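Sequence of HEAT repeat domain-containing protein (Symploca sp. SIO1C4).
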Amino acid sequence: MLALLPADNTPAEKARALASFALQCLAEEPQIIDQTVYKVIDKAIENLNDFDGVNTKQNTLMDEAFYAVMQSRFRQLCHERLLQSYIQVSDYRRFKIGCILATKTEIANLSAENAAEILKPLLKKLNASYSVEERVEAGLGLVEAFYRPHGQNANARIDFLPNALLQETITVLLATAQEEVASNDAVSTAAIWALGWLTSAKISDSYTTYTFTEAQLNCLRQIVMSEKRDAFARMWAALILSICGSEKPVFAQADWIYEWAVVADGGKPHRYLPAIVPLDRPLDVYVLQYLISSYLPMKAKGLIAIALGRLGHFIPEMVEPLLTIFHNDILLNTKRDEALVYLVSTGGSQVISVLVEGANHPTIDDVKKYDPPGRCILALVGMGNVDALKHQLEFGMGNQMTMDAYANALAGVTDSQGIKVLESMKNHHKKQVRDAVANALSKSTQWDLPKAEQINSNSSSDDGATNSSFSPQDFFKKLRDFRS
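Predicted 3D structure, token representation.
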């Protein structure tokens, strides 16, 4: 059995394949000693990647292998080894091991009827009188209980717990999360992770089911600021802070992708885009800005940047982490869109350069699921940077719809240079650019008319008006049709 395991210098892809195969063989229940079982499991743990344990399904061969072993006579040994590994490591490795452990936890789907029966025994075992192993198991059981509704519906809300049980749950989780971590923070990390799923902290909308006290908010801020704590515990605390108020986070203030698409389609001038309303949370902005400037894994920084964006605070340190999220094709579209909105709001030469590159060099794979090129075009429109739009229009790379989008954005920006740029391109050598410029200047004239005249003008023509059923998907579909 040991001969199947990869050597330490084996290339990563081959090492993962061998480790996964050895784990699958373990599920066949060969006659081997416990130490051999541990070595096989340890190699599998060493070779976990981003695709493992992402939800309750078996998405990878490694997921399937762990699931098979957990059904075999080695189930307990596997569970114990995963648990000890979770306790002993930290940051991203702990997070991935926790994902495997939590998703292999057998627990009923949470509901108003069974909530007390499921949660109370787990909350009790978080008490310091229990062993670290028992407390971590309880914490991860709560992670799975609160995660499962989100695994079935990305927009799920756990808003059905009785008030007394909800208050008890949050109180116990916060008390556990803020424990001293001099020896080991595995328990406190599991507790804050569970609280993150309970509050739906990955959904960019205000959490109003429970009102946190100022003391509880300070507890979260202390976790964010503590350099002794696990990076992902600090990340979860940051996400919770970003949604635990009555004000709408920035991403929830408007359907930003739709708004950009309307401007691109000529439905309204850029200057009529909704304005971002920053949240009045100076203390939270301060601690999150401190956190994103700390030495942390990029995967943690990405969600910290999301938390700052939700509060309406945009700094250059957010750009790289947000780009990592935007380019991550295993994430949900809404997560990537949220990162894109905050990139546009942050602005700067690096963001513009990435968007221009993405808009001008699409690949076949790009458009299958998410269409990053189309979103890069809309992001440039939404940003409204005259120099960037001028460059794109002057370059003339793209189809008529793309040229129209850039020209329409220039026609409606607040900066008077937008119209001057269009005027300078009336005689552009490319016909599609000339057509886009002429159409955009015509729209600009309509937009400058008094409102009553605009309505009268639009009543006799659909030009410049946006159909009520218009959606960003229409824009992306038309782009795909043009490319094909």
